[in-house]
């Protein structure tokens, strides 16, 4: 055993006494002039979109109104999940995730992009405002989904939204984008801003119609967040619930033109039947070679709960609806 110097022991005891007594001084509290405030900080970084000061001190957290998932697949063993790249079922009434397959995986949205386009248009546009079709908007590929709009024609925003969501018109999407923001790029910036404010932080959009671009992507969960926000607007729900819409508008010479646009949703058109107990309200389809076959759907289950179901990158149209019916049975 080693000997310990008595002087060192005394010094050690003195040091311990000083530490635990604080040398007899009282510790004073410190107040910071710029202390963290959840409401002000959330506003600063756009984590909330409201200026309502009544929320101060009672700020609702992001997840409080949303279905929340840990990202693990759920229920896929009992379905034909192999026919799609990602999918999910969300009960908006109970705030439960009922089914999950790769819901945070990066996916190309195709024309389901138009859900966000409509959401932004309804937030920033005037339904009665008249928009003129530009050469750029009218110049769409012959094999793409269009409303057959011609340069110089004039339509209201409300009419364009029917063309956007029923006929899935790529030309209508560009007319809306240019009418609200001046050009498609500026409108895409607005789309990204609004998406992030909704919590859709794993998405990025570069156009208003969903035509393929490697920098244009989303996730099942982000689409759920965007769609959930969009259906809070009754006009949006009315449009996606419509099977057929007759539109009258003017050509460049002021002459009347009439078209009939029908929904691309096979449930609404009666060519597909939902499972017993499920009432389909409406939704949005999307298809490109890279995105596959996509469908975002709003339904009510037998209990009257609001259900959002999403399938992305299905391998064919028949499997898209077959698989969607499997998902709806989870509701």
TrEMBL record:
Record InterPro entries: Beta-lactam/transpept-like (IPR012338), Peptidase_S11 (IPR018044), Peptidase_S11_N (IPR001967)
Family: Belongs to the peptidase S11 family.
The protein's name in its UniProt record: D-alanyl-D-alanine carboxypeptidase
MF annotations from Gene Ontology: serine-type D-Ala-D-Ala carboxypeptidase activity
Domain Peptidase S11 D-alanyl-D-alanine carboxypeptidase A N-terminal: 84-315
BP terms from Gene Ontology: cell wall organization; peptidoglycan biosynthetic process; proteolysis; regulation of cell shape
UniProt organism field: Roseburia zhanii
Active site: 111 (acyl-ester intermediate), 114 (proton acceptor), 168
Entry binding sites for substrate: 284
Pfam families xref list: Peptidase_S11 (PF00768)
Alphabetical keyword list: Carboxypeptidase, Cell shape, Cell wall biogenesis/degradation, Hydrolase, Peptidoglycan synthesis, Protease, Signal
Keyword Protease tagged: yes
Gene3D superfamilies according to UniProt: DD-peptidase/beta-lactamase superfamily
Signal peptide limits: 1-26
């Amino acid at each position: 055993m080693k000997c310990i110097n008595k002087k060192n022991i005394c010094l050690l005891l003195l040091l311990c006494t000083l530490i635990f007594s604080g040398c007899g001084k009282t510790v004073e509290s410190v107040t910071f002039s710029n202390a963290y405030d959840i409401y002000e900080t959330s506003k600063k970084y756009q984590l909330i979109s409201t200026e309502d000061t009544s929320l101060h001190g009672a700020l609702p957290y992001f997840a409080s109104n949303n279905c929340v998932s840990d990202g693990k697949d759920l229920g896929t063993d009992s379905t034909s999940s192999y026919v799609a790249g990602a999918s999910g079922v969300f009960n908006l009434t109970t705030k439960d995730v009922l089914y999950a397959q790769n819901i945070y995986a990066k996916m190309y949205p195709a024309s389901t992009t138009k859900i966000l386009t409509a959401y932004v248009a309804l937030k920033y546009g005037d339904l009665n405002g008249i928009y003129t079709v530009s050469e750029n908007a009218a110049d769409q590929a012959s094999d793409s989904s269009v409303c057959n709009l011609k340069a110089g024609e004039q339509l209201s925003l409300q009419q364009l939204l029917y063309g956007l969501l029923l006929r899935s018109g790529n030309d209508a999407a560009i007319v809306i984008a240019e009418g609200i923001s001046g050009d498609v790029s500026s409108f895409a910036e607005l789309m990204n801003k609004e998406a992030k404010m909704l919590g859709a932080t794993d998405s990025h959009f570069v156009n208003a119609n969903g035509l393929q671009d490697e920098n244009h992507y989303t996730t099942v969960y982000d689409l759920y967040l965007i769609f959930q926000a969009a259906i809070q607007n009754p006009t949006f729900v009315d449009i996606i619930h419509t099977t057929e819409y007759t539109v009258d508008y003017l050509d460049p010479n002021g002459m009347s033109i009439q078209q009939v646009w029908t929904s691309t949703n096979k449930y609404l058109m009666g060519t597909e039947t939902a499972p017993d107990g499920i009432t389909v309200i409406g939704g949005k389809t999307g298809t490109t070679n890279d995105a596959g076959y996509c469908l975002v759907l709003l339904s009510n289950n037998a209990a009257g709960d609001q259900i959002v179901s999403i399938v992305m990158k299905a391998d064919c149209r028949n499997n898209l609806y077959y698989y969607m019916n499997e998902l709806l049975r989870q509701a």
